[in-house]
Amino acid sequence: MQTEEEILKIKKVKNTAVRTVVLRHLLNQEKAQSLKDIENALAYTDRSSIFRTLKTFEENKVIHSIEDGSGMTKYAVCAEGCNCDPKDLHYHFYCTNCDKTFCLFDVLIPKIQLPENFKLQQANMVVKGLCNNCNK
Amino acid sequence: MQTEEEILKIKKVKNTAVRTVVLRHLLNQEKAQSLKDIENALAYTDRSSIFRTLKTFEENKVIHSIEDGSGMTKYAVCAEGCNCDPKDLHYHFYCTNCDKTFCLFDVLIPKIQLPENFKLQQANMVVKGLCNNCNK
DNA sequence: ATAATCTTTGCAATCGAGTTGCACTAAAAG
DNA sequence: CTTTTAGTGCAACTCGATTGCAAAGATTAT
To answer: Which residues of this UniProt protein bind Zn(2+) (chains A, B) (predicted)?
Structure first.
C-alpha cells in the first residue's frame, strides 16, 4: 500500500497539509466519500479547500468521481494503475427507500460502442430501486 | 396518439389546467425536458406548480425522469404500455465541453442481473466525454 | 344549494450542493 | 532577501430543488 506522499509524488501533485489529510481520509474509507462526508470527518479543514483539493486530485487522476444516484458526487482513490476507464467501474445501486448506495462489483459494465469520433471520459451507471432490506 | 385527457384518465390522475398544459408540452417535445425548460415554455404557470405536477405524474407513471449528466433532471412521457423498465431506456452521452446531451438510441442497455431480492425501479446510464464536434 | 372538507395553485422563502472572489499565508523561484 | 506563484480560509453567492402558507378551486356531506 502506498503512502499519501508516494501517491502525490507519482501523480505529480504538490504535497500540502490539506491534501495529505484529505487523501489519507479517502484511503482509510472503504466507501466513496462525498464532500460533506470529508468535511464532517475533517473538522478543522475548510470546505472550499477540500473542494479545490478534490478538483486538483481529479484532474491529476489521484481520485475519480462517482455519481451514485444519491445526488451528491462521491470520490474514491484510483486503484494503482487506474486510468479511470469505464472498465474499472461497476454499477451502483441506490435504494430509494433507505438512501443507501451499493456497489455491484459482480456486475461488470459492458463495453459501450460510441458513435464515430466520440471520446469517452467517464461512465456512471446508476440503478435505482429497493434493496433487499427495503423490498418487503 | 392519445390526448392529454385520455392519458390522465388512464393513469387515474385528476385533470387540471396546469396538468393539461404541462403534459401537452411534454408530448409536443421530442427531447426530454427539464423543469426549467417547461417553466420557460409556459410563461404563466408557476414553477412550483409545474414541479408538483411532475412529481404527481412520476408517481402515477405518466412520465419518467432521466438523469442525463447535465445536472438537471429531465422528464419524458412514458410510451404507451411503458412501465418504466430499464429496457425502455437508452444510454445518454453528455459532452463535457459543449454541455449537450445525446441519446444513444442504437446502444441498448443490457439486462442487469441484480442481487437476490433487489427490486429495480429505474436505471440511468450516463456516459461523459467529448462529442464528435468537440473531439478535435 | 350550502357548508365543510380536501386538493390544487401561486408566491415567497428556504435548502443544500457546488462554486467563486478576495485577502492572507506559505512555498518556490529569482 | 525579495518577488512571484500557489494554497488556504472565510464569506458570499449560484442555481436546481423543495416547502410553508394562504387563496382559489373542486368535491363531498348535510
So the answer is: 95, 98, 131, 134
- pTM, two decimals, is 0.88
Place of cell 474514491: A76
- Report helix angle A47-59 to A17-28, nearest 10: 80
CATH no. for residue B23?
Answer: 1.10.10.10
Q: How many domains does chain A have?
A: 1
* pLDDT (tens digit per residue) in B54-88: 999 999 999 999 998 899 999 999 877 666 665 55
Residue ranges for the known binding site of A for Zn(2+) are 95, 98, 131, 134
Interface test with A, best of B72, B95, B128, B136 (most A CBs within 10 A): B128
Please indicate, yes or no, if residue B74 is contained in any of the structural domains: yes
Q: Tell me which residue range forms the domain holding B111.
A: 4-129
Measured CA to C1', the nucleotide nearest B18 is C9
Would you say residue A109 lies in a domain? yes
The answer as to whether A135 is a domain residue is no
Q: How far is B11 from chain A (nearest CA, A)?
A: 21
Which nucleotides in chain D lie closer than 7 A to a protein CB?
Answer: 6-12, 16-20, 26-27
Residue B118 falls in which region: left (phi positive, over 0), alpha (psi -120 to 50) or beta: beta
Measured in angstroms, the CA of A90 and the nearest CA of chain B are apart by 12
Q: What angle do CA B63, B50, A124 make, to 5 degrees?
A: 50
B130 to A124: CB separation less than 8 angstroms, yes or no = no
> Are the beta carbons of B131 and B93 closer than 8 angstroms?
yes
Is residue B66 situated within a structural domain? Answer: yes
